[in-house]
Prior knowledge:
Strand 6, helix 6 (160-171) and strand 7 form a beta-alpha-beta unit. By secondary structure, the chain is an alpha/beta fold. It has helices spanning 24-33, 56-62, 79-89, 98-101, 105-114, 160-171, 189-195, 204-207, 212-223, and strands at residues 11-14, 39-44, 70-75, 93-97, 118-123, 141-145, 177-181, 199-202.
Amino acid sequence: MKQLNPKAQGILAPSILAADFSRLNDEIRSVEAAGVDWLHIDVMDGHFVPNLTIGPPVVKAIRPVTKLPLDCHLMVSQPEKWIEPFAQSGADIITIHVEAAGSRLGELLKKIRAAGCHPGVTLNPATSLSEIESVLDDVDLVLVMSVNPGFTGQKFIETSTDKIAALAKLRKNRSFLIEVDGGVGKNNIRSLREAGADVFVAGAAVFFSPDRNTAVNELRKQMGPV
Ligand code: DX5
Ligand code: ZN
């Protein structure tokens, strides 16, 4: 299993949902060359969210072209069906939604670890942290959604910063990473870091910029020191 935080600094994870799919290989190389830490892969099933995106064959195709950890965010209604296919395709992290997993959440997180991946849990903006409290000992990552999932380029929901601060308090001596996803950019990355986030998903903020080095450097500069 890949180590999740080798640099002990803020982790930048561009979402390839905002990339040009017709040139995916070049797009991935451009952000890897710019020094990002992970690739965030938004998997949508057209049911849990109103969009349909990436499946295991695409993850399998990406795996040999990059050394970056593949952070697979499963926005699907039946996560139990997809853990094994994504693990076999080369995912390093598999994150599932509490709203989709329901009472099977704990069992499915164990299944992710048994499949050789880091387990993550995520929650929608309207879902309370109390819904995931019982699994905080079982995860390597908690993803806080800061937009309603479905599309890149949406506006950041401001209350997400307080949710991250509350989660950072709940973390106590546990070592899971806190990831924030949706509308993250140079104007809010510093306050999210200060609130306790470790991993910053950025779709539009990286891939909508023609100069990836400048976009990544700007985000790192705004993120500031540890
Ligand atoms: C939203 C996805 C996000 C999104 C991020 O459903 O989970 O990963 O694509 O894109 P930006 O950074 O453009 O909001
Ligand atoms: Zn995502």
